[in-house]
């Protein structure tokens, strides 16, 4: 059926792990790296070969992309053509770091804490503490105003919480959803 361009189908190959919308382009994480596809033509316009095992938290930013390089314990920043523009070596033990959409802050877990690190100022602040067995940041939404965190509360029971970040950087509301 004709959808007047509202619905489109792209051949992204069978090794696709995740797909992101990047302002009309498709950012595709595969087992062998990242591909950037033109959203209109459906052609690959850039590619970065890297083992997906060492990549975590691939994100679309305002001025490019970022991912956590678990092997080298760093956050790598890429431009719109997938060229590396910066490599922020993390000196603090940061679990599941996520970069804010503007690229100015890195949210991460450390034990039971959720913290934010500002690389430019070299400052880390506590945002929230949970009593849980394990936690992992899994998403950042609405222009960096909401963090998604998966927590394991007991005996493998996991919950998803959404944390609203206030203007001052402090957390104002936490919403809790059962994952099971």
Q: What does this entry look like structurally?
A:
- This protein has 180 residues and is mostly beta strands.
- 0% of the residues lie in helices and 59% in strands.
- The protein has strands at 16-22, 25-30, 33-38, 44-49, 55-61, 64-69, 74-78, 84-89, 95-99, 106-110, 113-118, 123-129, 134-141, 146-154, 157-165, 171-178.
- The strands form 4 sheets. A 4-stranded antiparallel beta sheet has the order 1-2-3-4, with no helix packed on it. Strands 5-6-7-8 form a 4-stranded antiparallel beta sheet, with no helix packed on it.
Averaged pLDDT: 82
The DSSP helix count reads 0
If you compute it from the alpha carbons, what radius of gyration comes out, rounded to the nearest whole angstrom? 17 Å
Largest sheet: 4 strands, antiparallel
By DSSP, the count of extended strands is 16
Question: Fraction of residues in helices?
Answer: under 10%
Shape: globular
SSE string? EEEEEEEEEEEEEEEE
- Which structural class do the helices and strands define? mainly beta
Q: How many angstroms separate the termini?
A: 37 Å
Percent strand equals: over 45%
């Amino acid at each position: 059926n004709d959808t007047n361009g509202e619905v489109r189908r792209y051949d992204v190959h069978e090794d696709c792990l995740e797909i992101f919308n990047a302002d009309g382009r498709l950012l595709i994480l595969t087992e062998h790296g990242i591909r950037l596809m033109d959203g209109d033509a459906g052609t690959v316009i850039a590619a970065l070969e890297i083992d997906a095992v060492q990549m975590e938290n691939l994100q679309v930013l305002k001025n490019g992309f970022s991912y956590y390089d678990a092997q080298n314990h760093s956050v790598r920043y890429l431009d719109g053509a997938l060229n590396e523009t910066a490599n922020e070596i993390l000196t603090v033990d940061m679990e599941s770091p996520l970069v804010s959409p503007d690229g100015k802050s890195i949210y991460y877990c450390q034990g039971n804490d959720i913290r934010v690190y500002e690389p430019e100022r070299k400052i880390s602040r506590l945002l929230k503490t949970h009593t849980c067995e394990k936690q992992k940041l899994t998403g950042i939404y609405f222009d960096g105003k909401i963090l998604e965190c998966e927590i394991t509360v007991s005996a493998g029971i996991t919950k998803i919480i959404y944390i609203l970040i206030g203007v001052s950087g402090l957390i104002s509301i936490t919403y809790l959803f059962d994952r099971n």
